[in-house]
Design a protein that fits this description.
5-stranded parallel β-sheet, two-stranded parallel ribbon, binds nickel (II) ion, single chain, alpha/beta, 7 strands
Length: 217
Amino acid sequence: MDGALLVLLLCMILGKGTKAVETGAGGSDIQRGEKLVALTFDDGPHPGTTTRLLEGLKERGVHATFFLIGKNIEGNEEIVKQISEDGHLIGCHTYNHVDLTGMSLEQAKRELEQTNEKIFQVTGKVVEYVRPPFGKWNEKIEETMEITPVLWTVDPRDWEDKDSGLVERRILKDAENGDIILLHDIYDSSVEAALGVVDDLLAEGYEFVTIDELIEE
Ligand code: NI
């Protein structure tokens, strides 16, 4: 586990207020004065909502990170291809949206490998990042697999309140340089909130980056 990741995990344990990439711990490549944020979308791909999101991001010239559920890729390969071709980063969110700590190491690895294989078949790209469902990560996986877990620093609970205005306000209230924003591209309200956040933060001088650009390996 590298320094930036450790800080990120600590950030999750300690709660808000500790910014993963502002600590100056040496694990970050963020320059002073920069205003960088990463939008991340879990649980897709989803026909309709993911497609609308991709159109909105393209119009705004913004890149994001998509953590895909393996079983949702079936039948939605064209969407996955589009995500990749548009320049977004694709990560893994397990095949069946499972708690990786609630199963054997072998099962957990299979959840990741099956998903990564599917993503590779469609995009030709090797998956390097995983967002563990429920934020539950089994560190033993890292001992045998080249994959980096990515949690988040801003959670507007978009799955709970499907109100785009409310979700957008929650994000804007918390967003700071270095933040990783958690959203789900399976709800219309989340897509609308995300595009609103992009417009607002671009106007404030923020730049949107993908996870690999935010976290130094
Ligand atoms: Ni999820």
